[in-house]
Amino acid sequence: MSLLSRLFGGGAKDAAAPKPSADSVDYKGFRITPEPIATDGQFRIAALIEAEMAGEAKSHQLIRADLLRDREEAVAASLRKARQLIDEQGPRLFG
To answer: N or C end of the chain: smaller count of CB under 10 Å?
Structure first.
């Protein structure tokens, strides 16, 4: 990594930094774990949606293009978008 990249925050620093975990939330039989993705000093809306269907564990990774400056706002938005997706698609989310 060049000196300028290190001085101005370039490189894969965001990807290597440990991300603090957010609490999972149960919603209509689904478990939502917000997982905002750090990107260039902002946070991309993302969440893991899990459920058990017919005795089998299923999961869906929600990732949106939306970027927010504050991690807590990104966690709240991730939960909101995951709930919306569950309301719209329900079990079809895994099909």
So the answer is: C
